[in-house]
Design brief:
By secondary structure, the protein is mainly alpha-helical. 49% of the residues lie in helices and 6% in strands. It has a five-stranded parallel β-sheet with strand order 3-2-1-4-5, with helices on both faces. Helix 2 links the parallel strand 2 and strand 3. The longest helix is centred in the middle third of the chain and has 22 residues. The protein starts with a strand and ends in a 9-residue tail after the last helix.
C-alpha cells in the first residue's frame, strides 16, 4: 500500500486534528511532515516552534513514527517527498494568511497527480460561512459575533485515532539544531524557557487549570498584577490545542461552576480571535494598509530614539515600560497592557501602527498575523470596530486603575523600588502635550474622513 503525506502546519497536535483523523481513516501508511518556510519568523515564535516540533516528534515516536522536518517552499518540498516515496495523497489543514493561501495554490498545482484533502480545524466556523444578509463579509465585531454564534456550537473535539498506520520507512529529516530556530542569546533562551513549556501536553495542562482562571476571569482579566488570564494564546496560535477543545472545556466548566458570566467573557475572546482571522481572510491587506482609507494620509512621525525607548521599556511611563520589559523577557504581554503600550506608540509618539505591529510580530510568542494586525488597527483607530482615534489612554491613570497597588510595575521596573541599582528615566514626552498633538494630527484627516472601509 502506497503512503500518504500528513502536512502539519499550525496544527501541531495529535488530538482533534482533522487531517490526521482522515489520513488514519484511509488506512494508508502515513508520513508526517513539517515544512519550515518564509512565515516561520520572529525570534520568540521560532523559539516556540523549535520546542513545539520537538514535542510533536516525541509524541509521534511514542506511536512508532517520527516527524520529517524540511525547510523551503512547501510546494517544492512536498513534491520532492511525494516523488521519492510514491505518496498518493496529501492531507493538511487550511491557513488564512495571504502567504498561506498562495502556498496552498502552489501545492495543489505541484501535486496535480496526487489526491489532496483539505480541512478546516483552526477556527470554529469557516470564514466563508459567516455573511450578512446581502452576502458580504461583516466589518464590525458585534454583528459578526451574533451571526457566528447563531450558527451553533463548533463541532465536538475528536480524540487521537485509536489506530494509526504510520509508514515504516520515511524520508530523511533535517535536524532541528541545523535550522537555527533558537535565539543566539543564552539569556533569551533561558528567559523563554523559564516562562513557557511549548507542546500539546503543556497545552492540555493549561486546559486542566482553566477552572481556577474561569472562576474570576470576568473580574481579573484586565488586571496585569493578577494571574487572571488563560495564557492559552500561544498554544492556540501553534495549534497545540484546538479552539474546539477550549470551547468545550469552558462550556463544561460553566456547568460545573453554575455561572455563565465568566465563561461568556472568555468565549467572547475566542470570537475576537475568530473575527481577526475573518477580517484577514476577507481583507488580505490588513497587515499593511488601514481599513479606513482616510488614515492613509495621517501625518505619522518617524523618531528612532523614541521608538527604541518604547521597545526597551525606557519611556518613563511605568505601566508602558513594565509591559515592554515583560515582552522582551517572556515573549508575552498582558492584553490590557498591550493596548496601553500600543496607544502610547501611535498616539503619544505618533509612530505608525505598522512599526509597532512589526515589533510585536518579532517578539511575541503568540504573534498571530491576523490578531496582531487587527488589534493594532483597532488601537490606531483605523480598523473595524475602532475605538475613536481621540480616545487616547492616559498611561498614568491606566496604571492607577489596572495596577492599583503597583505590584505589576514593581516586578518589571525594579528601579522604582530602588532594587535595581539604576535610575528610572524621566518621561520622554509630556502626555498632555502629546495628546494635544495627536488630536491636531487627527484634525488634518477629518476633512476626508469617510464611514466606508477600504476595499
Amino acid at each position: 500500500m502506497q503512503p500518504v503525506l500528513l502536512w502539519f502546519r499550525r496544527n501541531l497536535r495529535l488530538s482533534d486534528n482533522a487531517a490526521l483523523i482522515a489520513a488514519a481513516d484511509s488506512g494508508c501508511p502515513i508520513i508526517p511532515v513539517y515544512v519550515i518556510d518564509e512565515q516561520d519568523v520572529g525570534e520568540s515564535r521560532r523559539w516556540w516552534l523549535h520546542h513545539s516540533l520537538l514535542s510533536l516528534d516525541r509524541d509521534l515516536r511514542a506511536l512508532g513514527s517520527s516527524l520529517v522536518i524540511r525547510s523551503g517552499s512547501p510546494d517544492k518540498v512536498l513534491a520532492e517527498i511525494t516523488a521519492k516515496t510514491g505518496a498518493t495523497a496529501l492531507y493538511y489543514a487550511r491557513r488564512y494568511e495571504p502567504v498561506s493561501r498562495r502556498q496552498e495554490f502552489e501545492v495543489h498545482a505541484a501535486l496535480r497527480d496526487v489526491s489532496v484533502h483539505v480541512f478546516d480545524d483552526s477556527l470554529m466556523h469557516k470564514p466563508e460561512n459567516v455573511k450578512t444578509l446581502g452576502g458580504s463579509p461583516y466589518r464590525v465585531f458585534t454583528p459578526f459575533w451574533k451571526a457566528a454564534s447563531g450558527i451553533g456550537d463548533p463541532p465536538t473535539p475528536q480524540p487521537v485515532p485509536g489506530a494509526i498506520n504510520f509508514a515504516r520507512a520515511a524520508p530523511e529529516s533535517q535536524r532541528l539544531s541545523e535550522l537555527d530556530l533558537l535565539p543566539t542569546s543564552a539569556d533569551r533562551n533561558d528567559n523563554l524557557s523559564a516562562a513557557w513549556v511549548p507542546g500539546e501536553s503543556a497545552a492540555l495542562s493549561r486546559i486542566d487549570e482553566l477552572e481556577s482562571t474561569l472562576s474570576h476571569y470576568d473580574r481579573h482579566r484586565d488586571r496585569p498584577d493578577l494571574d487572571g488570564t488563560s495564557r492559552l494564546s500561544p498554544y492556540l496560535y501553534f495549534g497545540e490545542i484546538s479552539v474546539r477543545q477550549v470551547w468545550q472545556a469552558v462550556r463544561q466548566l460553566e456547568l460545573l461552576l453554575r455561572s455563565a458570566t465568566a465563561s461568556s467573557a472568555l468565549l467572547r475572546q475566542l470570537y475576537w480571535r475568530e473575527f481577526s482571522t475573518y477580517l484577514l481572510y476577507h481583507f488580505p491587506t490588513l497587515p499593511d494598509k488601514p481599513l479606513r482609507s482616510e488614515f492613509e494620509g495621517f501625518p505619522w512621525l518617524e523618531n528612532e530614539s523614541e521608538l527604541q525607548a518604547w521597545q526597551q521599556g525606557l519611556t518613563g511611563y511605568p505601566l508602558v515600560d513594565a509591559g515592554m520589559r515583560q515582552l522582551r523577557q517572556t515573549g508575552w504581554m498582558h492584553n490590557r497592557v498591550r493596548m496601553i503600550a500600543a496607544s502610547f506608540l501611535v498616539k503619544d509618539l505618533l509612530i505608525p501602527w505598522q512599526t509597532g505591529a512589526a515589533w510585536f510580530l518579532d517578539t511575541l510568542v503568540d504573534a498571530d498575523l491576523a490578531n496582531n494586525s487587527a488589534s493594532w488597527q483597532w488601537v490606531a483607530g483605523c480598523g473595524t470596530d475602532a475605538a475613536p482615534y481621540f480616545r487616547i489612554f492616559n498611561p498614568t491613570l491606566q496604571c492607577k486603575k489596572f495596577d492599583p497597588n503597583g505590584d505589576y510595575v514593581r516586578k518589571w521596573v525594579p528601579e522604582l523600588s530602588g532594587s535595581a541599582g539604576s535610575a528610572y528615566p524621566s518621561p520622554i514626552i509630556d502626555h498632555g502635550i502629546s495628546r494635544k498633538r495627536a488630536l491636531e494630527a487627527y484634525q488634518t484627516i477629518r476633512g476626508i474622513r469617510t464611514s466606508k472601509l477600504a476595499p
